[in-house]
Specification:
Three copies of one chain form a homotrimer. With about 260 residues, chain A is an alpha/beta fold. In chain A, about 50% of the residues lie in helices and about 15% in strands. Chain A has one domain: Ribokinase (UDP-N-acetylmuramoyl-L-alanine:D-glutamate ligase), CATH 3.40.1190. The first copy, chain A, has ten helices and nine strands.
Chain lengths: ~260, ~260, ~260
């Protein structure tokens, strides 16, 4: 795919680059070290297994340094952070910097709560490969007040796009901005990704799980920007497909895993 | 609905008051701060999303005071309590007292284990708006020995009704007593709620999730008694409906979420 | 069933001994105290409820001694171990030794990470009734280097069978070795169990859940060897059946719970 140097292209399944990246993921089965929140651990692991990756949740400060050295990618999600979690996250992120392990930061509810916001600020300085968040979180991280209300975004994703681009430039991370339309940007190039369904907002942790999927694509993608774009586009396509088969949020989650395991095969 | 000043009325879907309360819940989407047990976090969040509420699990003592001030209601469930959890729960409950935020206490296995029983006693003194438990737990809280066996109730709910009424009077909380028949009482008025299905006992955390649903109804109900009654009646109706479509406990949980998201629409 | 004193018999559903053990389990509904990992708590509880057991997750060092004394069996799984978890696990295992409560050790990723490996070594010295692991974990526990990669086994289970037998002899535990073929051994007698489906590797924590199921069968089986064999054979049969009805890993997990609740009825 030819990306414009600046400006915005859009990406959607079944673009051949996406199918190639998915085939590489399934071939390599990257080991994704997840330090994520208590609400979504099970679903995150199941999404990673469904797509063909190998999840592992190793969460204690005594073990994370050793495990980051084995893992192909790392996810840090602060959704239900505690003080011991923060220690483990910071140690894991530091280690990823030393080993060159690509990692995703998901700053759930940053800007809403002071403690986690301070931890997230430290994590951003440890140079995540990708930051994934909703509009409120990205605005907060960019030093603005997003008026966030818990974990929901109260701002449309397009409104936060300038902040996302600015944050990408200042942090060095690719920023994946989730919303009705997803955007991914490295500060120079920006892609928009459509897809998904309203039902995705009725299942807990879909955004968190997208962060995990981006982590899984990092080791098999040509760039962090393409990893974030690929995961987002795949997520949207599977979400649209699953919603068409579902009778509500319960069956949606089941269909999502089923479709994710077979898409493109 | 006209409630008798004393004595027992019964309530069942689709009573118009229930439909109105559900419509108000969906319109307002109350933010429910959950400090709940590790087994049910995911299902609890999904039930709250399915009904139309906004769940958020914020669990560390550094953050709960700040978050209770934002939330519309609070749930405290001691199912897998640890010492740091207890600190966070007590701080959250104290804050709810200051801010007037309505909150639900779910005293899982109180009376069975000394440590949590002592924490629950402190929580009761912080004046929960609603206490939800099974017969053993309510008996234990009322200073009796329920002969509890883990998290299961070994006593029929009707046998614990006098204790529930007494507990409501002494604590100032509405007591929601779960069992084959559910009862809710504020010490003066008592309502019985039928519905539900045997399959609900084969899915973990249905009772815990009912506690969360009561919390979600508190900000949109005319009284804590009606919030507890509405949540219980809705739970029973959705449970009966889902059981009729399910082939076992796995599909029951899926159907429960699907039906909860569409009931009354 | 007549088991040879040495050599290898195989076991599969619907052997009458399996059906009898399942009927005893459903009749007694053993209370299984689980100290397990954060990824699988919900699914583990649902599997135990589906088969007819009574799960309870009690995880803090302040409570485990008291609860082991009530429980019929104990599961200790180190998948997401932290320092407070380790304290609780060691206290629970010590108590089980004093009370004669049968217990299962699931040494997830032992041999891969130093901290948990040291805790697992202490747990093995507390004489678990059954050790359940994959080939890498069993090799690691037997003092060999399994070359484990996270929680996946990279060695075929048959290759680890000599190590399993040796470990059973040195530790006094029955060893349940999971893989494409499962083996259970008490060091003298070894049984092989076929069944299951590739989809079981696409759902997180199936192995962890098998550990819980073994714990549930311990109080109702003629020997720890038969408990491990029965749980493994039942797991394989339900897995094969569920896979035939499933469209992917999402529906597989749902079908697994449904079938487990009705098999043999």
């Amino acid at each position: 795919m030819t990306l414009p140097v600046s400006g915005m292209a859009s990406l959607a399944w079944p673009h051949p680059d996406l199918k190639d990246a998915l085939a590489r993921l399934r071939g390599r089965s990257p080991l994704v070290h997840c330090i994520t929140n208590a609400v979504v651990t099970n679903f995150t692991a199941n999404v990673l297994l469904a797509v063909g990756a190998a999840p592992a949740m190793v969460v204690t400060v005594e073990e994370v340094e050793e495990f980051v050295r084995i893992a192909d990618a790392l996810l840090v999600n602060v959704g239900t952070i505690t003080v011991p979690d923060a220690e483990a996250m910071l140690k894991a992120a530091e280690t990823a910097g030393l080993t060159g392990t690509p990692w995703v930061l998901d700053p759930v509810a940053a800007g809403v709560l002071a403690y986690r916001t301070s931890v997230v600020a430290k994590l951003v300085r440890l140079r995540p490969t990708v930051i994934r968040g909703n509009a409120s979180e990205i605005l907060a991280l960019n030093g603005l007040n997003g008026g966030g209300r818990g974990v929901d975004s109260t701002v449309a994703s397009a409104d936060a796009l300038p902040a996302a681009i600015e944050l990408a430039r200042s942090s060095g991370a690719v920023v994946a901005l989730s919303g009705k339309v997803d955007y991914v940007t490295d500060g120079q190039r920006t892609l928009s990704i459509e897809g998904g369904d309203e039902l995705m907002g009725r299942v807990t942790g879909m955004g968190c799980t997208l962060g995990a999927l981006i982590a899984a694509f990092l080791p098999v993608s040509v760039s962090p920007l393409m990893a974030a774009a690929t995961a987002s586009a795949l997520f949207g396509a599977v979400g649209t497909d699953a919603a068409g088969r579902a009778g509500g949020p319960g069956s949606f989650a089941v269909e999502f895993l089923d479709r994710l395991s077979t898409i493109g095969l």
